[in-house]
Amino acid sequence: MTSYNIDTYDSDHIRAVFGNLSIDKTRLPSSGLTGAGVPSFVAEWLLDKLVPGNGSLTATEADKVNAFVSKAFPRKDDVNVIKFRLTQGEIYKLIALLKVRVKLEEGKGEIPEPQAQIPILSLNQCTISTDLIERHEMLLRQGIWGKISLGLLSDGTPEIIDFDPFQCSKVDLQAYANCRAQFSTDQWRDLMFCSMGYNPQHPNYTHTAKTWILARLLPLVEANYHLMELAPKGTGKSYVYENISGKLSMVSGGKISRAQLFFNARTREVGLLGRHDVVVLDEVQSLTFDNPDEVIGPLKTYLASNRYNCGGYQDISSDCSLMLLANIELDNFLQPKNSNNLVVDLPYFFSETALLDRFAGIIPGWKIPKFTYDMAASGAGLKMDFFGEALLSLRRDNRYFTYAQQHTKFDKSATVRDQNAILKSASGFLKILYPHLNLTLMDYERDCLKPACELRQAIRDAEYTLDDEFRQLSQEICVEAY
């Protein structure tokens, strides 16, 4: 394998290989777009359209972006201003997230029309043509960010006249693999790292730290893959999930209802797990449910079988992955205070091994340094919308799991769930680091299988502490590449 000095991060090579799918990551922090609530996968697209170039924005470029933002991105308190302009016959153009929902009601005697929603303006009953919906079917799922042309019908109903999406819709995975072949493994790892928004040249980002930060991408590349990250505050656990794709949904702490997560019987709308590719629950240490048994039961079923049933309605199947983020306390040596039971400070239901066993692993976030401004990406990386879509597209390719199966040997210490978890984690690392599947057995063992085992070992350690049943097995899971 070609060695690579991180001090020679080659932005020119990245631009030569990926062309307009790459962007200088210093553009975004100097733009002020994230401060306006614009996710990175939208902001980088806009920057490339408005002020293409490299390096921090000039004063002129910043003024151009700010003028555009003030005009095109509405605030919540702009809704009455926009409504007034619509009543004056104006076609108002804005950039926002657009969703479409279809509400079925029996006994109405007519087929309901789909209704568009613009959440930032709290507009939930806009008319939209079926032609626009058929062209952009993702509107019916997570919704899409784009340029919306909004008008008003004669009866006072807001109307979506036109829509131009911003998000990358399709990735040529063979072309992506061909691009990977033009980088060494270390160069590609640093490109992935920079594309996430981190500076691969920062001395605090060791090889180990990079491995666990890249592990945050596993729920994107693997369908029905469920993972936790436990870390002290300030390591940037949620950053990538908030910015990489509109197909992810993030919920921060507090109380989560069964209707929100699974199915709303009143509106008959499928919940988060049925609509998104990844659902991220942040601040899990403060997570509560009104009635935990009503949530934990279907959650265990879903984590095990990829489907759930709520309130007697038909089964809902999904390939959504679940990511849990939580803060934990460290000792004076910056190690977890309860290293053999990392979930001890989480809500009590995570100490039920029947639930815990359904997670593939725990990312050791205490091995990731706290984030500071000089750790932000400063070279060329992949545009966030393309990067996110490429990762999500890989979840449908089974060749990586097959490779892992063919090159992994378990002994009797590994249960079926241990084996499935480790194989899926190893498959995920293959997709992130070796999408072209050109690697040696040593590469696989070092970069994929070993971290996959470490992720799962944290689950086994907690189970061994919590439940006598697991003490019948050895505490260590033994796996080897062959």
TrEMBL record:
Residues 17-150 form the BREX system Lon protease-like BrxL N-terminal domain. It holds the Pfam family BrxL_ATPase. Transmembrane segments: none annotated. InterPro entries: BrxL-like, BrxL_N. This is BREX system Lon protease-like BrxL N-terminal domain-containing protein. The lineage of its organism: Bacteria, Bacillati, Cyanobacteriota, Cyanophyceae, Coleofasciculales.
